[in-house]
Amino acid sequence: MSILIQPDTKILVQGITGDFGGRHAKLSLDYGTHVAGGVTPGKGGQFFEHKEHKVPIFNSVHDAVAATGATVSVVFVPPPFAADAILEGVDAGLDLVVAITEGIPVRDMVRVKRAIAGRKTRLIGPNCPGVVTPGSGPQSHGGCRIGIAPGYIHKQGHVGVVSRSGTLTYEAVYQLTSKNIGQSTCVGIGGDPVNGTSHLDVIRMFNDDPDTHGIILIGEIGGNAEVEAARWIKANVRKPVAGFIAGATAPAGRRMGHAGAIVGGAEDTAAAKIAVFRECGIEVAATPSDMAHALLRAAQAKGVTLT
Amino acid sequence: MNIHEYQAKALFETFGVPVPKGVAAKAASEFDAALAQLPEGPTMVKSQIHAGGRGKGTFTDGFKGGVKFCKTKADAKEIAGRMLNNTLITLQTGPAGRKVQTVYFTVASDIKKEYYLAILLDRGTSRPVIVASTEGGVEIEKVAHETPEKIFKVFVDPAYGLADFQVRQLIAGLGFTGAEAKGAAKLIRNLYTMFWETDASMVEINPLITTPTGEALALDAKVSFDSNALYRHPEITALRDLNEEDPKEIEASKYNLSYIALDGNIACLVNGAGLAMSTMDIIKHFGGSPANFLDVGGGATKEQVVAAFKIILGDANVKGIFVNIFGGIMDCNVIATGIIEAVREVGLKLPLVVRLEGNNVTAGKATLAGSGLPIVSGDTMADAARKIVQLVA
Question: Which three-class secondary structure state does DSSP give residue A208?
Fold first, then answer.
C-alpha cells in the first residue's frame, strides 16, 4: 500500500502542452502511470500523443474530471498562472493537486492556502518534485509517478520518504533501492515558504499507513516545519524514523536556492533542528550518504524489518 | 530583492506612510542642491548601503559612523563628503565592507518615543504578521528574548485584509492615545497596504517615532521584496542596485545558476538546492571548507557548466572543485561530456572531483576516466567529499 496515490490512480496534467509538462507527462506514461488527460485552456479536443498513448486534452479541469474520472492533477503551469490552475483543480473537487511550478509569488500562495482551507482537496508543493508510489514491475514500472522524479530509481516496498528537496529525495531513494529496500510512497513537499502540505501532514499519513514500516524525513534550514514534525513523531510514532537536515554551513539571511531555505533566527538553523531530531528519538544521518544507513540503524534498534 | 532606505522611504510616501523629509545625493556636486531642499537646522546624513548596523559602522579610512547627526546643513555637507565613495564596514557587511555610493540627507526629527513596527510572512500560519513593540531603536531579537511581553503581533487574514480591530489591538498595545493614535493607525494601515500591494517580503520600521507634536514617523526603513513577484512590479525591479550585489552572483543569475559566495576554498557545483546545501555541509563534515553554494538546477547543460566553472574560478580563494550531480533524468554521459568540455575550455588547473550518480552513470564515469584529464571520480557523496578535502589540504 501507499499514501496519497496508488499505482492505478488516474491523473491529469495541467500544462501538458508546455515543454516542461509535456516532457514529464511522457516520462510518466513510460513509467506506466495512468495519465488520463491533459488540461490546456483553448486546446480542448486535441490529443497529446506519445508512442502508443493518445491522451485527450481538455479546456478545463472540470471537463477533464467529468470525462475521465481522474482524482489527481499535477500542475506544470508557469508561475503567473499557477495559483489559478491550483484553484481550478480544487474547485473541480480533485482529491489531490500536486504543484511542480517553481517561482510562484508568495502572496499568491498565501491567498491560495486561505482559499482552499476546509476544502477536500490536498495540495502538495509548489516548487516540489512531486509524489511517487512505486509499481511492482522492473525498475518499479507500473507505479504512479506525479511530477519530475526519476521513476526507475524506486522500488516498491515499505519505507516512506518526505522531503523539501528533489535531489535529496532521489539521493535517499537511490540509497534505499541500492540496499534492496523499497518505498511505499515518496513525497516532495517543496522548497517554498508557503506550501500546501507540511512534513507533519505527511508523517501522519505514513504513521497511519500499515504498509509503511519506516520513514526518512529530510529537511533544511528555515521555518520550523521539521521541528513541528519531530515533536509529533516523539509523541506518536513508533516506527523507525531517520532524519537529515541540509544547510549547516549556510550563512544566515541568505536564500539558499529554495525560496524557503533561509536562516532567520537561532531556531531555524540546521544545528537547532538536528538537536530537536535527536531529542525526539530520530536517528540523524550525519551526511546525505548516510540516510539509508541511518534508517537501518533506527529499524534495527526497534527490531523492525524494512524489506 | 533589497532596496535602499531612501528608495523605501520614497515608496512609503507614495503609500501615505509619513517619513522625515529627505533627499538623496549620488555625487558631491549634488550636495548643495539636495540640502537646499531641506530647512536650515539639524540634519541627518545617512550612508546608503544594503547592510544593517550602519550607525555603529566604521569606514576603512577610520572615520566612524555611517549615520551622523549634524547641527547644521554646512556640517552635513562636510560629513557627507567623508562618507561618499568611502567604504563602510558594519557587523553585516563582512570585513570587506561596502562602498557608499549614495548619501541621504534628512531632517533630524525631535523624538518623543521610539517604537518598532514590521510586517512579514509568518510561515507557521501562512499569513502576513504585523509585529509591533514599545521598544524601538534596539534589536528586536533582543526584545523578543528579554522582554517578550513588549512585543505585539497580529496575523492578517488574507481573505479579509487588515481588520480595524487588529489595528486597535496594536494601537492599544503600543499605548497610543488621542491624535497620536489616529496618526499611528493610519500609518499601520497604509504600511500594510504597501506590504501587500508591492509583494514585499518584509517591511521594517525601526524606529518608528512619535514627535513632541504628536506625529508618527518612520525614522528608518528596511524593505525587501519577493523576487518571484518582481515580474509584475517593473517600478520596483527598477530599484535594484547591482552595486550592492556580488558580481559573481549577478553573472550566475544570467545563466539561471543560483550562486552564493562563501569564504572557504573548495568550490561546489551541484544540481538541486537541497543537494547543493548538503554538498557544502559534507565538505565541512570531512574537515574542508566550502567556497560557495551553486545550484545549476534540474538539468546541467554544457553552457551552464562552463559558465559555472568560470564563475567558480573567479574566486581567487578556490583551491579545488567538487562537482556533485544526481542525474536522475538527464543522461550522466551527457553531463560527463559537458564537464570535460568545460574543463578544456577554461583550462582547469585545480584538482577536480566529480561524483555522478543516476541515469547511464557507468557510461558517464567511463567518459570521465577516458578523457585523459586529471579528473578524480567519487562513488558516493561521502567518498567524493573525502577525496576533494584531501586533494586541497
Answer: helix
> With a CB-CB cutoff of 8 Å, which residues 113-172 of chain B face chain A?
121, 123-124, 126-128, 141, 157-159
Calculate the CA A59 to chain-centre distance. 26
pLDDT in tens, B139-174: 888 888 888 899 999 999 999 999 999 999 999 999
- C-beta atoms of B123 and A220 within 8 A: no
Q: Is the pLDDT of residue B28 over 80?
A: yes
- Report CB contact under 8 Å: B126, A113: yes
| Cis status of the peptide bond prior to B207, with omega within 30 of 0 | yes
* CATH 3.40.50.620, domain B20-107, yes or no: no
**CATH class of the domain defined by B113-237:** alpha beta
**What is the set of domains in chain A, with CATH numbers?**
10-124 (3.40.50.720), 155-302 (3.40.50.261)
Active site residue B115: no
Q: Indicate yes or no: CB of A270 within 8 angstroms of CB of B281.
A: yes
**pLDDT band at residue A267, thresholds of 50, 70 and 90?**
confident
Q: What is the pLDDT of residues B358-390, one digit of tens each?
A: 888 999 999 999 998 989 999 899 999 999 999
Q: Is A191 on the interface with B (CB under 8 A)?
A: yes
CB A38 within 8 A of CB A17: yes
CB atoms within 10 A of CB A52: 6
Return the closest-CA partner of residue B283 out of A11, A56, A288.
A288
DSSP state of A159: E
Superfamily of B247-392 according to CATH: Succinyl-CoA synthetase domains (3.40.50.261)
Query: What are the cell numbers at B155?
Result: 496575523
The ipTM (two decimal places) reads 0.92
CATH 3.40.50.261 in chain B, residues? 247-392
The dihedral formed by the CA atoms of B275, B278, B282 and B283, expressed in degrees to the nearest 10: 80
**Active-site residue, A199 included:** no
Locate A128 and state its grid cell: 516540489
Which SS3 state, helix, strand or coil, does residue B378 take? strand
Q: Parallel, antiparallel, or unpaired: how do β-strands A10-14 and B320-327 relate?
A: unpaired
